[in-house]
Write a structure and sequence with these properties.
By secondary structure, this protein is mainly α. The protein has 5 helices and 2 strands; from the N terminus they run ββααααα. β1 and β2 form a beta hairpin. About 10% of the residues are buried.
């Protein structure tokens, strides 16, 4: 953990922790805007999905901030556990908000994949992007499960 601020002998929020949720938010926004740029201008349905994504992103960041706040003294196991549950819930909502923006292969592309000689750099990029997002979500989820199981011991 990074350096802490001290006041009256108590540790306050470290500079890294206070900026982490905001930096994480900008990282996700930049990553997904880079995916969406080729499809500008957006349709009305896409605008609604972006509005929904903004809401679930904000809720995810708030829940991560709430979880971090439970880590400071006095630590109450029940509050930490509730914070972890809320983060897990918000993470799944965030994942469902992200999914529509990840490029998917059409049926024709999926059938073409059955051919042994055909390869596509764009398809490979789309697959890697989907896998990267899934791995990120899975890692965060696994971390919350490990923390939850550690609280029960």
């Amino acid at each position: 953990m990074g350096p802490s601020l001290m006041m009256a002998g108590k540790s306050l929020v470290s500079p890294l922790q206070s900026h982490l949720p905001q930096n994480l938010k900008y990282f996700f926004i930049n990553k997904f805007l880079s995916i969406l740029v080729p499809s500008v201008p957006f349709s009305k349905a896409t605008n609604r999905m972006l509005d929904d994504l903004a809401a679930v992103s904000s809720n995810f960041i708030s829940s991560s901030d709430n979880l971090i706040s439970t880590m400071y003294p006095p630590q109450v196991i029940e509050q930490i556990s509730l914070g972890l549950q809320e983060l897990q819930c918000q993470l799944l909502l965030l994942q469902s908000g992200i999914e529509p923006f990840l490029p998917q292969d059409s049926i024709d592309e999926q059938l073409a994949d059955l051919q042994l000689t055909k390869t596509s750099a764009i398809k490979d990029r789309n697959h890697k992007l989907r896998k990267w997002c899934a791995v990120c979500v899975d890692q965060i989820y696994k971390s919350t499960l490990e923390l939850t199981s550690g609280l029960r011991k």
